[in-house]
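Subgroup meeting minutes
Present: P.N., E.W., G.H.
Scribe: E.W.

1. P.N. recapped why we're keeping a running log of single-chain structure predictions: easier to compare across weeks, and new members can see raw inputs and outputs side by side.
2. G.H. added today's entry (514 aa).
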Amino acid sequence: MTTVLTASPVVRTTTGDVRGRRDAGIETYLGVPYAAPPVGPLRYRKPRRHPGWEGVRPAVAFGDAPVQPVFDDPSQKRYGVFEETSEDCLALNVWTPAADPAARLPVIVFLHGGGYIGGSGSVPVYGGGVHAREGVVWVTVNHRLGGPGFMYLDELFPGLEGTGHLGIWDQMRALEWLRENVAGFGGDPDRIAVAGSSAGALSVAAMLAAPAGQDLFRRGLILSSRAGHATLDTEEATAVARVFLDDIGVAPGDLDALMAVPAQRLALHPRLVFGPMRAAAGRYPVGAVVDGDLLTAPVIDAIRGGAGGHVDVVAGTTTEESRGDVLDEYGEPRPGVSLDAAARLPPCADLGIYHRSLAAQGLPVDDAELTIAVASDDVMVQPTLALAAARARAGGSGATYVYRFGWRSPNAGGRTGAHHGLPNPFLTGQLQLSGWRTWLGPNPPLDTADAFRRAAQAFAATGDPNHGQLPRWDPYTLPRRPTLWLGEDVTVVDDPQRERRELWAPVYDPQESP
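Output recorded in log:
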């Protein structure tokens, strides 16, 4: 079937005119530069304003994906394999009902996941066509990843500054560009919600804490991440960078050699990240750094002190975030993964809490399921609840809403469960993509997907995610802790899995009363 383009709309921006395309009532503007290409002398520098262009620039195809490795995991095929990658990647993509400056529509800016080593805003499941048809301007952003975006080199190369999280500086530059230009695409610059999944959610949390991020947005969605508990200090980040330099064969201080390394060699392969880099840091080694520039304190500490308290936030996780780390896409244990759940618990914690919790959910009480439950709490669920509690205690003007995504994929006989990344097609409405059909099965709950997607839209529009398809979802307050539970049905539950939360409080929420 041939797609007929009915028109070629043009939008004027502060950097030049861009020509998109209109199809079936939706306008798209793809590969729009928001900053100067970070190449040549701008490699390992903060993003600069784009110098602009003459004439009308075509914006009908995605730009290059950021430099990244090709992942070996078959499950990653859902997110695409990128043929074209480049350091010249600082571009964004816009889906809009109409590029009418008078429209003043709510805007959702989506920051992709991928552990800061992979991903792109061009991934089909992140597409914004459904949101645009429903009256929201949807934006995805490409930013630097891996070595160029997240290696902290300030202490190893005199003259470099701001490295370690240049990808987050890129994201903030994109938000600055959008505040200047999104009205031309039909968006309201005063109603920009920034949504991040996984690593993208870490960026949203970091921007809440960063002094330079305080005026960029008023609404944030933190979806499936450690939610402020993943910040590196400069000693850890420098140790990781030494591993990186050894891998690419560059001596500390040899800036000319660093600048001469071919771009693709700067990608961070998972074998390096989860091997020697993780050993050097003692935990996941790629993320924001407390460098006194972007961050002056660990993200969670800044939020406990009230940073970002003026921003309305939605935060949540799936119930089984670590399932894909423990079991492969066929539901089989991954080689080398320990199934000793008790060893992952805080000292003196009772594994019996998890026995009771799994039994109450109707799940098998076996080593794999216990490990998944404990690891999911440790890695994402409890850090997210601690962030929500910290914001509730800090008492800022911004509300916090918490959800838990519990719908379980039928893939692999149900062994795939409510795994990390599963909510993405629910958020975007992209439930029929071929790469996701196996994971979602023939009958994903459309009512749940609609409720989740429209909650994000209502939140972007007003700061309140409630709408006609939801039960009353109140802000997260203590001690009640109301939580939207997204399963086959959508309900609101106060303080779900309380025993599990209290078990982890000494680790993630030390302010919680015994």
